[in-house]
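Question (not urgent): is this output format expected?
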Amino acid sequence: MSVIWRNVGPLAGIPLRGARRLCFGHRSQPIAVFRTGADQIFALIDECPHKKGPLSEGLISGETVTCPLHNWTIDLGTGLAQAPDIGATQPLPVRIENGDILVGLPEAQSAAA
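Got this back:
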């Protein structure tokens, strides 16, 4: 499946260990972009697999985010909940170009976004 890259703004717009919820979604689901303390960037559907809590409002530690509603810990790279919890949210590809963050959306979905 091909991907359309959408520019979501400058890397400097997200603080270390911070996140931003995007104004557009993917398949009618919100997207969050995360920046770790090690300056890595990740994107996930902004819904915890437990009760759809806003992961963008969670605490980032290493390469995980903790849901603010019920403390589920989600891996930023895979979207998988960490044991003993089970479930996943969808990760999206990201890249940096000229200091801007780009999020990859499947081509069929990007037209609707």
